[in-house]
Write a structure and sequence with these properties.
This is DUF1934 domain-containing protein. The chain has 148 residues and is mainly β. Helix content is 0%, strand content 72%. The chain has a single domain, classed as Beta Barrel (Lipocalin), CATH 2.40.128. The chain has a 10-stranded antiparallel β-sheet with strand order 6-5-4-3-2-1-10-9-8-7, with no helix packed on it. It is globular, with a radius of gyration of 16 Å. The mean pLDDT is 89.
Length: 148
């Protein structure tokens, strides 16, 4: 396994169908991280900051488009496993021994090669609870190797 340092330009779009006016928010940020591959599984790791809280993020994608998004905060870890086009259960820890249960649905996973060594990974998914859609999410990571 050879971890390749990368620079990342990212955007995250959240649509909350229950919020006034559709509740759409878009966040853009830049970060650095690593890309590596183990067999047919690809990994991207980076640091993300949202509402003043930093988290380490790891995205794991295999050849079958099974995807895991893992966020590590100071005191908690959230692991969201998705199977392409198949509902999956996601447990979101709220206390040490309690978690909320969501249903995740991975709508799309797209990879593109862009100009000047840039590559892009776009992920779209939704989270539901008790047959009510909580939100639609789209993450777009544009990344390229950092030359040393």
């Amino acid at each position: 396994m050879n971890k390749q340092p990368i620079e990342i330009k990212a955007s995250s779009e959240i649509i909350n169908p229950k919020a006034e006016g559709g509740g759409q928010e878009t966040f853009n940020w830049e970060s650095s991280g690593h890309y590596f591959q183990v067999g047919e599984t690809h990994y991207i790791t980076y640091q993300e900051e949202w509402e003043g809280q930093k988290s380490q993020v790891r995205i794991k994608l295999n050849a079958n488009k099974d995807l895991t998004i893992q966020r590590q905060f100071d005191q908690s870890k959230i692991i969201m496993p998705f199977s392409y086009q198949t509902p999956t259960l996601i447990y979101y820890p709220i206390f040490q021994d309690q978690a909320l249960e969501f249903e995740g649905f991975l709508k799309t996973v797209d990879y593109e090669e862009l100009a000047s060594d840039w590559q892009a990974l776009t992920i779209a998914y939704q989270l539901s609870q008790d047959d009510h859609v909580l939100g639609h999410y789209k993450i777009r990571l544009q990344y390229r190797p950092i030359m040393r």
